[in-house]
Amino acid sequence: MMEQITLVIVDDHPLFRQGVADALSIDPRLKVIGQSSHGEKGLQQILALRPQVAIVDVNLPGMNGQQITHEIASERMGTRVILMTAYADAEQMLHAAIAGAAAFCSKDIQPEELTRLVLNVAAGKYVVNQQVMNKVDFEAWLSRQLDSVRRSYSEPGSPFHPLSEREMEVLVLVVEGKSNKEIAALLGISHQTVKNHITSILRKFGVEDRTQAVVYALKRGWVKLNYQTNPEE
Known about the structure:
With about 230 residues, the chain is of the alpha/beta class. The protein has 2 domains: about 5-150, Rossmann fold (3-Layer(aba) Sandwich); about 165-220, Winged helix-like DNA-binding domain superfamily/Winged helix DNA-binding domain (Arc Repressor Mutant, subunit A), CATH 1.10.10.10. Helices cover about 50% and strands about 15% of the residues. It is built from 10 helices and 7 strands. The strands form 2 sheets. It has a 5-stranded parallel sheet, with helices on both faces. Strands 6-7 form a two-stranded antiparallel ribbon. Helix 2 (about 40-50) runs parallel beside helix 3 (about 65-75), helix 3 packs parallel to helix 4 and helix 7 (about 165-175) crosses helix 9 (about 190-205). The longest helix is centred in the last third of the chain and has 15 residues, at about 190-205. The protein is elongated.
């Protein structure tokens, strides 16, 4: 009997997560050994089970997918990560590569394409824009991308975004719909300081207003809208 490729799937949408598991399980070469709906719990499960491949959503409660990927890469444990997102764009793809992902794909990927992606990643390949590369070619691609990027971002540890800790606290409260006055009271800072932080956030994101800043951060998995999901292991 051939040895199966082991997988863990981390996504907070139960129906989508199970659909991915079911689609991949059709191939006898693949075996889903774990699922999780939460960032930190997903990372713990990956560290415990040590699958060959982890399929991780970018936008998760708790740790985002980029942070999980960075932690896995830092552990040098052999698990290779495929990051998935509902908002596929060049910037997201670059962030995924910097964090240590072996591949990046949109959630509208076809099941057979995802299966091929998993098989390539498990074989040590990197996949960018459906182009399968070896490590040398991938590192050359990443170097070219980084040379063309002028905006500086923080290291993809904790957190993976260009904001200071205080700016991140302000952004989270903005996402929750809090007014400047409410944010000032909650953080124990002045109303003007809140305005200064928001101005800095808008400048760093290159957007014009609070709504655009929220959309920008949500798309990149830096913040998460609060809603309840069924608890998973």
